[in-house]
Amino acid sequence: MDMQRSSFRHGDLTLSWLDAGGAGSLLIALHAHWMEAATFRRLAEDLAPEWRVAALDQRGHGDSSHAAAYTRQDYLCDLEAFFAQLQVCTPVVLLGNSLGGINALQFAAKHPDLVRGLVIEDISVEAGSDVSFVRAWSGTFPTSEALAQQIGTRFLPYLEDSFRSGPDGWRLAFDPEDMVRSEEALKGEYWHEWLSTSCPALVIRGRSSRVTTQEKIEEMVRRRPKTLLRELEGGHVVHQDCPETFAAEVRCFLQSLGSSSTPSR
C-alpha cells in the first residue's frame, strides 16, 4: 500500500508518520525498537477500507528525529502530540508491537477516554531485555550487503526498512546506542497500567518468540477482564512473520468493537 508520509513538529523533534487514508475508523499503530512505521503497510492494506491505519515513526526511528532522551514520559508525550496532530475527537484503537505495546497500554491508562480497544503484540507487562549487541550495528558501511552481513540473518528481515544510503555509504535510520538507552528506560513492570484499563484488548503472542513466554502472556490475559489471547506462528514481530493470520485476528477483534464515527482530521 502506498501510504502517505507526513511530519509535524513536537518540541525540538520532527516526528514522521504514514497514513493509509480513507474514511475508515482510525487505528494507530506503534512499532517495536529498531523498526518503523513502514512495517505496518501490509496490515494497513489488509484492514482497508473499513480501517484507516496511521503509523508513527517513534522518536529516534525511521524518518523521525533522534532525541536527547528516550524515557517513558518522552514516548507518551510524543503519542499525545500525535493524537493532537490527527485531531482525534472520538476513541480510537491502539496497536503496539513490543516497545509500541508498552507505549500503547501506558497511553490507554493515562487517557482512557481516547482508546476504545488495544492490540498488544508480543510484549509482557514485565518488560526489558539486554540489547547491547546492537552496538555492533553502529557506523556506516560501504555497501548495503556489508550492513546486512553485520546485522545477520536473524534480524535482517525486520530491519531492511531501516536501511539508509548516503554519500559515505549505508547505515541504519536509528542510532544503536539510542536503542540501548531506550530499552533500559523500558525495563520494568507495568501491571498497574495494564490492569487499570477497561477497554477490550487483544494480546497476540508469537509461538517462537524469544522475548515473551506463554506463562507471562497467559497471566496478563487471565488477570484482565475483556482480554483475548491469540498465539500465532512466528516470533517477536508476528505481524510480519504471519501477516495473513495476524490481520485476520485483528480484523475479527476490530469487528467485535462495533462501529465508531471516523475521527476528525
The neighbouring-strand order within the major sheet is: 1-2-4-3-5-6-11-12
- Broad CATH class: Alpha Beta
H-E string: EEEHEHEHEEHHEEHEHEHEHH
CATH architecture: 3-Layer(aba) Sandwich
Query: Stretches where pLDDT falls below 50 for ≥5 residues?
Result: 260-265
Largest sheet: 8 strands, mixed
The helix content, as a percent range, equals 25-40%
In terms of quaternary structure, what is this? single chain
Give the number of DSSP strands: 12
Query: How much of the sequence is in beta strands?
Result: 15-25%
- State the domain count: 1
Please, how many helices? 10
Return the CATH topology.
Rossmann fold
Globally, the shape reads: globular
Structural class: alpha/beta
Report the span from N to C terminus.
20 Å
